[in-house]
């Protein structure tokens, strides 16, 4: 340091020393009442921080933790649909709004009403929304208002999860091929579900079904199951969340139907995509591609078919439900609480 700077440096140190001394003297001059008040305020602040941290919404188990919970509840094999009379998804529509509103009130009392405006509005006017929706989009259970509406979504809507799934295409495909070998020994191997269709055969192999893990199936696809835990927007904690392998044999048509809600987007990763296979959502056709994800809103009227030749084999996709990108984090927490399996 040049010598010319030394006087200024000395002055700076003197000023700092004087400032510190003045601060210490000011503290000493404070009367006991002021110090007591400051101490009380500090204690209140510490208590508030502890209380807020303790009262945060409970950490819902990630998909990786669902396995133990499902096994404890007696879910053993194949597929399981919730039949609990108290379940918000499975309840008859009579009284459903009251049940949902009760769940929302319970959530708000425990945590907060902050960010609950759309959910509150949706539950309050659910009957009107479900009855007045145009026939192209009629979710069967719950409609969240003011979400952007589109039959299909771009890959960028959930870019991270799309990229994770596509990078692991070969892993998922290998585990499917290992599972599918069992079809040569029996018509419906253990763990598979046959769905009703007007023609052909539609099989599904669930890892997560209506928010509940299927442990035995997950053990047979361990790498695919672990992959679900690395997805940022996978719905794993409420009844609208599913993850499965879906197989259409040649000549199969799935009847037109609506999904239960618009809070999710359904992601199909193409595993095997023969010719003449299409998905039609809201009247708009799309084709699957191997190793690529196709995102759509299944609350729109949709159907799928496989009209390819038998020698080309089945159409196979890995299906997983992701959050609609415009559902906020606070809303996701509340919806997980309101639509928790069995609630």
UniProtKB/TrEMBL annotation:
Membrane topology reported for the UniProt record: Single-pass type II membrane protein
Keyword field contains Acyltransferase:
no
Annotated Aspartyl/asparaginy/proline hydroxylase domain residues = 166-325
Which spans are transmembrane here?
Answer: 32-50
Provide the primary localization: membrane
Q: Where in the cell is it found?
A: Membrane
The protein's matches in Gene3D superfamilies, at most eight in alphabetical order, are given as: B-lactam Antibiotic, Isopenicillin N Synthase, Chain
Alphabetic keyword roster: Dioxygenase, Membrane, Oxidoreductase, Signal-anchor, Transmembrane, Transmembrane helix
Q: Which Pfam families match?
A: Asp_Arg_Hydrox
Q: Name one GO cellular component term.
A: membrane
Would the keyword Electron transport turn up in this protein's UniProt record?
no
Which InterPro entries is this protein grouped with? Asp/Arg/Pro-Hydrxlase, Asp/Asn_beta-hydroxylase, IPNS-like_sf
The Swiss-Prot or TrEMBL record describes its family as follows:
Belongs to the aspartyl/asparaginyl beta-hydroxylase family.
Q: What is this protein called?
A: Aspartate beta-hydroxylase domain-containing protein 2
Q: Which organism is it from?
A: Coturnix japonica (Japanese quail)
Q: What is the lineage of its organism?
A: Eukaryota, Metazoa, Chordata, Craniata, Vertebrata
Task: Name the gene that codes for it.
Answer: ASPHD2
